[in-house]
Amino acid sequence: MATIRTNAIPKSYSLPQASGAKISGPSTRRLLPTGPAFISHLRLTLHHGHSFEAHDEFVEKERQRLEELQASASNGEDDLGVGDEPETDELLSLDPKEWKKHDYYAVLGLSHLRYKATPEQIKIAHRKKVLKHHPDKKVTTTTPQSTSSLLQGLNLNTNDDAFFKCIQKAHEVLTNPEKRRQYDSVDHELMEQQEDTPTAATFKSKKIDFFEAFGPVYEREARFSRKQPVPMLGDVDASKEHVEGFYDFWYNFDSWRSFEWLDKEVNEGSDNRDDKRYTEKKNKAERARRKKEDTARLRQIVDLTLGLDPRIKRIKQQEKEAREAKKAARSAPASGTVTPKKTKEQEEEEKRKKEEEEKAAKADAKKAKAAAANAAKKARRAARAAEEAAA
């Protein structure tokens, strides 16, 4: 057994003196469960029953799900079919300074959707255009095409900084709800369609179906209504209630359409307050004028529709028949028997007989008048003869 050697205590060593300090009493402190370890423990307990096997199975399923999502993205399943429209030379040569004149839906490849495009579709279309036209995406002609379906068919060798600015401006406008509403109010396609609105002269010169001509017009204008849903034109068999409700709604149409997009911009670099106030005042007056003209334009369309609507004639005829039936019911005998309605031939026959009777009565009266005149004439002759004989 090993021995332990210790040094001898020196003679100068003395025992330490007892301290006068007192030990403080016990205190309670609250420990907060925090940190990644506690979160992992809590997740394991709540979601997996404190089972490591269940946790490992969940992690594996989550990994497979993420791989499937990445694979679907690479196959273009989240593409939504937007942003692949062909780009014309005119489109690619747009001047960023003329940004108010651009067709932003065409810039992002959303011409077939326009105001119906969802925020998700705008986001995907913008991403495609950025991948294609970003100045930093410079590649040589020897660069192979990307295997991603998101870039299939795209020209990766473009380097058009000006068009990229147009793309960014289009994304800025269409992702801002207020700016997009202003832009949709004066959309290029909308303005062109309004010029093709049918007129009364069009119906006189051409054989056009009423519902095919005016149905799309009201579908186009319905987007500007503050009240939703908007009643549509309907068909030829629409009920009286539907027709009356339709015209009542459109004669009181409440439109949110605005014309701020057409405002004149204040000259850049101008610090003149009077110039800015004048421009703002002029823009306000122009917006009011355009709003008034748009209201009058829509009212003219509704007036024209009402004047050409074939259902109005049918409704008036039904109302006339209802009034006649009600009148006939009031003039029926008290016994409750209803006099059968005479046909047109019967009415004409009675009218003819009545005319013949009146004609015969006139002839008899004429004969009686002539007989009376003859009798009076004979009486006068007899009286003169008697006077002569007496003389």
UniProtKB/TrEMBL annotation:
<dbReference type="InterPro" id="IPR001623">
    <property type="entry name" value="DnaJ_domain"/>
</dbReference>
<dbReference type="GO" id="GO:0004419">
    <property type="term" value="F:hydroxymethylglutaryl-CoA lyase activity"/>
</dbReference>
<dbReference type="Pfam" id="PF00226">
    <property type="entry name" value="DnaJ"/>
</dbReference>
<dbReference type="InterPro" id="IPR044634">
    <property type="entry name" value="Zuotin/DnaJC2"/>
</dbReference>
<dbReference type="InterPro" id="IPR054076">
    <property type="entry name" value="ZUO1-like_ZHD"/>
</dbReference>
<feature type="compositionally biased region" description="Low complexity">
    <location>
        <begin position="140"/>
        <end position="151"/>
    </location>
</feature>
<keyword id="KW-0456">Lyase</keyword>
<dbReference type="InterPro" id="IPR018253">
    <property type="entry name" value="DnaJ_domain_CS"/>
</dbReference>
<protein>
    <submittedName>
        <fullName>Zuotin</fullName>
        <ecNumber>4.1.3.4</ecNumber>
    </submittedName>
</protein>
<feature type="compositionally biased region" description="Basic and acidic residues">
    <location>
        <begin position="342"/>
        <end position="367"/>
    </location>
</feature>
<dbReference type="InterPro" id="IPR036869">
    <property type="entry name" value="J_dom_sf"/>
</dbReference>
<feature type="region of interest" description="Disordered">
    <location>
        <begin position="127"/>
        <end position="151"/>
    </location>
</feature>
<feature type="region of interest" description="Disordered">
    <location>
        <begin position="267"/>
        <end position="294"/>
    </location>
</feature>
<dbReference type="Pfam" id="PF21884">
    <property type="entry name" value="ZUO1-like_ZHD"/>
</dbReference>
<feature type="domain" description="J">
    <location>
        <begin position="103"/>
        <end position="187"/>
    </location>
</feature>
<feature type="compositionally biased region" description="Basic and acidic residues">
    <location>
        <begin position="318"/>
        <end position="327"/>
    </location>
</feature>
<feature type="compositionally biased region" description="Basic residues">
    <location>
        <begin position="127"/>
        <end position="136"/>
    </location>
</feature>
<feature type="region of interest" description="Disordered">
    <location>
        <begin position="318"/>
        <end position="391"/>
    </location>
</feature>
